[in-house]
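From the shared-data thread, chain only:
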Amino acid sequence: MPELVSKESSPKEAHVSSPAEAGPPQYVITAENLTKRYGDVIAVDGISFSVPAGEAFGLLGPNGAGKSTTMKMIGGVSQRTSGSLSIMGLDPDRNGPEVRAHLGVVPQQDNLDEELKVRDNLLVYGRYFGLPMSYLKPKADELLEFAQLTDKAKSKVDALSGGMKRRLTIARSLINEPRILLLDEPTTGLDPQARHILWDRLFRLKEQGVTLILTTHYMDEAEQLCDRLIVVDKGKIMAEGSPASLIREYSTREVLELRFGSERNATVGAELEGIGERVETLPDRVLIYAHDGEAALEEVSARGLRPVTSLVRRSSLEDVFLRLTGRSLVD
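Structure, as tokens:
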């Protein structure tokens, strides 16, 4: 546990100074050929990216793609094998404490103290940064209001719902007024309503100028939250850009989803050739990529094919990933 200091200082005084205070760098995070190996396993394979201040930047990919490993290296809790990494002009391997002083971290699994009350979780965590109670008490109340948990301040953590615990974890990560917030799979396991509430809180942080770095395998979450993202698979970057630009580059405007039954899906592809721009056959459905999904459906019917179900939808990042890797994000 870090040594607690008792001097009456502001959170900014408690932080270690960095080059950013003399004038913000062009990018708050810069990675060049970043690599992480575990024995013979390459978890992160020479990736490069830069993140300007105030951006919501995403790492999109399936489980095991290297997203969480990258986040750990940014957070200074896992050393890189090779390559370079700069966080606000500092190397997290050499300047871990200084870097972490400016970071807020929301881990994949909530690690709240279940025995403490909701407000006390914030106060105790703030003391790890050496922040005085004169700052922490009003800050905790401000963050509970932000997280819509004011009425739960005196409740035990184990009495909270999953969505409430997630909001409390985010509130806790903001106690030191971080410049960068790392969110690892922030909404995994939450119901749709809880996810949307959490998204709203993150939008508000971005409006306040906080840089958001998030990993996710939810395509809708990446589209909702990210200004820009990298699509990663097996430790490599497959594509980079805004959600809209990636969809334009790698997919069509619409997608026609057809289900012919588990036995028929695998064999019907040849009968659909020539409809739309391309046909993708998955175990549970067949996808036809076309700029006009309804016209594609009419052509399917004209060929005498009768799917069990049909759906026309807009293209998504899931389709981008499928085009780049040949498999689904949830594989």
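The first helix runs from residue 11 to 14.
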